[in-house]
Design a protein that fits this description.
Layout: H1 10-17, E1 23-25, E2 30-35, E3 38-47, E4 50-57, H2 67-81, E5 85-88, H3 91-99
Parallel strand pairs: 4-5
Antiparallel strand pairs: 1-2, 2-3, 3-4
Length: 113
Amino acid sequence: MRLSSPGKSLSTMTRERAAIDVRHNAGASRFEATVDGLLCRANYHLVDGVLRMHHTEVPAALEGRGIAAALVRAAFAHAAANGLKVEPWCSYVRTYMKRHPETRALLPEGFAL
């Protein structure tokens, strides 16, 4: 039985799969998580009931661990729970929506990916 993927230690894989604690920091207009002491964020502007997601940032040392996806999922869950729409101005968010068709219901009418 293989316990790790080529090039990754078991401890790295465990860290990658650990739950990411995402917080909505409404005052800063972002969803954020602190991982290994580093701030990760997905910024937005709220305009007329639409989350305009304009920037997603994960430090290079943390890339590939699913953190950006967790931030975006939290933002989408917040939008859905609060009757908001989402405009993906950030290329990462736009790509995420293209890869996850179930999220497209959050797009405002007439907004094309």
